[in-house]
Amino acid sequence: MKVVIAGAGSVGSSIARELLSNNHDILLIDQKPEVIGRSGLKGARWLIGDACEITTLRDAKLEEADVVVSATGDDKVNLVVSLLAKSEFGVGRTVGRVNNPKNDWMFDDSWGVDVAVNTPRLMTALVEEAVEIGDLVRLLTLQTGVASIVEFTVPGDSPLIGSTLGSVDWPQDATVVAILRDDAPITPSADDVIEASDELFFVTTIAAEQELRSVLLARPAGAAAGDGAVGRA
After folding, report:
1. Angle, alpha carbons 208-212-214 (nearest 5°)
2. In whole angstroms, how large is the CA radius of gyration of the chain?
3. pLDDT number for residue 230
4. By its UniProt entry, which PROSITE patterns does this protein fall under (predicted)?
5. Which end of the chain is more exposed for a tag (fewer CB within 10 A), N or C?
C-alpha cells in the first residue's frame, strides 16, 4: 500500500515507522530538510516542500496514493491537504489529525476527511477506559462522524456474564468486532460466552450508542430501582 504522510514530526514519524515495519511504501512530506536526518526512518521516501501547495502534491504523485495522512501540528494545514487530496487527486482514503478539539467539527467529508483522529480526545478516552469499568467509552469516530469504535469493560455484577454474544439483543447498528480477555484478543463469534472483565469492542453508529449503552447497562432482574450501573448521558 502506498501511503503519503504530510508532516514528519513525532506523530507523522511514528505512523511512518509502524507502516514501514509492515512493508508499506511510505512518502513523507515536510518543509524542513533537517527532519530527514533526525527521524531515524529507514526505507521511507522524502519530499521537502509545502504540502498545501498543488505543485508539491503533484511532485508526490498523490494520485497514486492509496491513503493520505495529514499529521502536521496545524489543523488548517491538515484540512487543506485532505481537501486537495480528495478534490484534486481523487485519493481513496484520507486520515486527518485534529490538534485542537474545538476544530473537530470541521474534519468531515466537506473538507475531504474520511477519518479524523482527535489525539487529545483519544487520550481522554483511553484514560476514561482505564477507570470507567461498566460504562461505554468512545475511542474513535469513523466515517465523518457517522460511526464510532466504542469499548465496554464488563463489570463483575453484569447480567450479561454467562450469556453468549449471539443470545444478546444488540442494536441493529452495533456489531461486536473484538474481545480482549486476559490481554489476549479474541475474534468474536455468536457462541463466545461473556465473562467478567472482558473488554468488548463495537463498531456502531453514533445514533445507536445510547441504545447499546442501555443493553450493556441493563440491571439484573430484581435489582432495586436505585441500584445498578449508571451510564453517562
Report:
1. 120
2. 21
3. 32
4. RCK_C, RCK_N
5. C
Alpha helix (H) residue ranges in the chain:
10-21, 34-39, 54-59, 75-87, 119-131, 209-216
pLDDT at 37: 83
Cell of 122: 483519544
Return the SS3 of 88.
coil
Q: How far apart are CA 138 and CA 152, in angstroms?
A: 9
CA dihedral 198, 199, 204, 209 (to 10 degrees): 80
Is residue 60 a contact partner of residue 5, using CB atoms and an 8 Å limit?
no
Q: What are 61's three cell numbers?
A: 504523485
Whether pTM > 0.85 for this model: the answer is: no
Residues 6+ apart with CB under 8 A from 48: 29, 30, 31, 32, 33, 36
- pLDDT string in tens for the chain (233-residue length): 999 999 998 889 888 988 998 889 999 999 999 988 887 888 999 999 999 999 999 999 999 999 999 999 999 999 999 999 999 999 999 999 998 888 989 999 899 999 888 766 665 555 555 545 667 887 777 755 688 888 899 999 999 999 999 999 999 999 999 999 988 889 999 999 999 999 999 999 989 999 999 999 875 444 443 443 333 33
Residue carrying the nine cell digits 512493508: 23
